[in-house]
Every structure is written in C-alpha cells, then in structure tokens.
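Dear colleagues,

As part of the handover before I leave the project, I'm documenting each prediction I ran so the next person doesn't have to rerun anything. This entry is a single chain, and its sequence is reproduced below.
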Amino acid sequence: MSKPPAHLVFDRPLGRRRLARALAAGAEPFLLDHVAAEFPDRLAAVLRPFPRILDLGTPGPALADALAGRSREVFVQAAPLEASLAPGVLGLVCDEEAPPFAPESFDLVVSALALQGVNDLPGALIQIRRILRPDGLFLACLAGGQTLQELRLSFAAAEEEVSGGVSPRVAPFADLRDMGGLLQRAGFALPVTDVDVLTVRYAHLFALLRDLRAMGATNLLVARDRRPLKRAVLLRAAEIYQEQFADPDGRVRATFEILWLSGWAPHDSQQKPLQPGSAKARLADALSTVERKL
C-alpha cells in the first residue's frame, strides 16, 4: 500500500466516514450546540445585514439553524456530508480547504468545529478570504491546543508504561498565539482571537470515549498506530485518568478549549492604523509626567 504524502496530518476521508456514521446513529450534540448558540451573540454587535452567508464545514445543522434568520437572500451550508437543513438554507458537500465558490461570493463566512481538522489551515484561511466580499466578515471557532489534554497525557503515560513507546492518539490542535498571525497572513483586516475553555465532567474515561465516538471525533491522524489498541493500555489509561484528573466526587474532567477567530475582508471604509510618528499629542502630557529621553 502506498504511503500518504508527508505533509498530511489528518486522514480526511476517514473523518468523513466516521462523521457520517456518527450522524446516522444520532451524534452527540452538546459541544456543537454550545458553540452554535454563541454565534448570534457575537454577531449581535454587527448592525449591518449579511445577504449571502456561507457555513463552511460545520458538522451538522446546529449553526445553520442558529443563523438562518440573518440572511435574506441565500444561506449555503457547505459541509462534509449532507444534513437536515432549515428552511431557506441550501446545502452542498465540499472540502473546507478548497471551497468551490467564485471570489467575493459571500458577505459572511462562519464555521464551527471544522477547521481544526484541515491539513492546510493557512491555505484554508486564504481561500475563505478569497470568497469574501470587500468588508465581509469571517467568524469561526475551532478546537485549541489544550483540548483533551487529560486524555493525551493519560494515554501517553499508559502506553509508555505498558508498551515502552508512545503513538499519536490526540490531534495537535492549533495554539491561540498563532491564530492572529495566520489571519493577518491570509489577508484579513482587524483580526481578533479569543478563547473559551469548557470543562466537561464524566463518570470515567470510557464515557468520554463514547462521546468522542458519537461526535465522529476519534483519532484521524495519518501517523496513528493502525494496530488495535491493547486492552492493557486502555485499562491503564483509565486508571491514570482517574488518579490524576478526578474531582473529589470521583468524576473525571475533560477540557475542550475553543478558539474564536474573526477578521474582515479589507475595505476602504475600515479603520487604518496611524503611521509611526504621526501622533499630534504627547503620551507624557496625557500621563501628566515628564518625558525622559534615552
């Protein structure tokens, strides 16, 4: 069997199959529902209308349902697979890394919990910038670097102890400090990033794994170990998880770090930073202090 290209991090065809299986069986919606409910609040401060909206890659209809009332003309949900759609929402299947739309097609592009699974995040952001109209808005959230840190540490310790080595089992999620730079690199104006940390408590490790499977969010790494997980590793990971990440009542914690991104397609009406040296007032005067030259 031929090896995948070296630059691929995620097995995206496998991800689509697992997500389709999860949705067909009744996907666990709590995390997607949590972030979808926040999109209308974040858009409430923007008074301008968004006639053409694209929901890019969100796995399910939760975000489309939350924002369907914001669009008077067309709302497109471009997802890895078809889902039940709200009235007035069009649907198609596409790749988030190569959205099949003409330049300047949309006034608003949103995405929830999808972009952490692309192989070329900088390229995906550039493509999103390309399909936004001037002064169009991009608003998205994705899993951040602290997501499932407890699971990562527990499996690594258990596998090292039982097998004498470690294989990748939890994805290398993006870091908040890098996202602002990626937005600027993609050509977005006025980029903003912030973080929301959600802690979910479970009876034990196996309940968390059951939820991840029901989200279609199990291991999609190209470099994953293809051999079946040893029972001894799984049981030891559950013990370590309980020992290190349990609350006094015995329930264990799971961290979901949600990174929020926003940026605008450049337009002449937007605020511009002043040129260095163009200030007309001295900082020392504003602070009522004495300026001391170096």
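The CA atoms of residues 190 and 272 lie 9 Å apart. The radius of gyration is 22 Å.

All the best with the project,
I.
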